[in-house]
Description:
about 375 residues, alpha/beta, elongated
Amino acid sequence: MDSSEVTIGPISLFYSYSHRDETLRQELEAHLSFLKRGNLIAEWHDRKIDGGGEWKAQIDHYIGTADIVLLLVSADFIASDYCWGEEMTKALARHERGEARVIPVILRPCRWMSTRLGKLQAVPKDAKAVSEWSNRDAAFDDIATAVERTVQELRQFRQTEKVLRTFKAFRNRQQRHVEHTPEAAAISDGWDGWTPRFETAPAELPAGTVFRDGDDCPEMVVVPAGEFMMGEGTQHKVTIARPFAVGKYPVTFDEWDACVAAGGCKYKPEDAGWGRSRRPAINVSWDDAQEYVAWLSKKTGKSYRLLSEAEWEYAARAGTTTRYPWGDEPGTNLANFQNSGSQWSGKQTSPVGSFEPNAFGLYDMIGNVWEWLQDCWNDSYK
């Protein structure tokens, strides 16, 4: 696989701060705007909570999934039971597990070195508080340099990780959207996206039938039973004994927002400024995807879940043995991935259904976004 085909989504960044430092937080956000303009970061702080939203659930979600957590440190931050006891504790736990990078940003002089933060490398330079600099812009620019360096390190790591994972797990097709159908599945993942699927299609519906279980539910396509050789290199035969239904398109923001409005999904993911509507829902975790399919199951009385890796590959191949559904070469403007020649390539997600479907009638199985699967990845078939 060519690593140039892997598109890396924005690095997620969380601001943890005391509201008494709101002005300084806004100044820092302005100095980091060049990263946002370049689609290198996707920021979140509690001022983005929608009216009526469950603020704690949203904060827990974003601090639990952020790639970078900026702790904006001052005496007020240390004095805040929530900033210190909740946000910082969770952030440091993820930092110690290697799940996130935590960067203390010293805003105002305080005794932070005498706390748990003392073991971390702080910014700006020499951990001199921003308020103590004669030129505050210079202080924030120094912080921005450190954040930019961390972002680039994480992007390089993510690219390498995705190339290796893609090759080993037969995801050698760039970022792609997978749909699972109403009675059995769904997915998400950088640009994280996903779709729903039926474990078993209604017996009376022949392969290729398109149906929908109700308002706000995704369109499903009945996929036929069959068999295929799974994987790359050493392959093994997999038999799909029964027809099953798979989402015709990746789950869209329209569909996700309907789940939020109905109370089935706890939070409303950011769209990175690319728009919602028929764009694939992104920035959702595996747990979020599970909430969505659980809501579909309850709403319809049928069983929705994520696809397994074998089911996904079978649906994506759609009877082909080539690298892509259309052949072994990436071609031009046939899907949305890095250097694919589409108007969205390497920039943002494309509206679902912007390209031709595969032989099973499924759209966006190649490119656009990564997707969650029901089972865990491993480097063997065991």
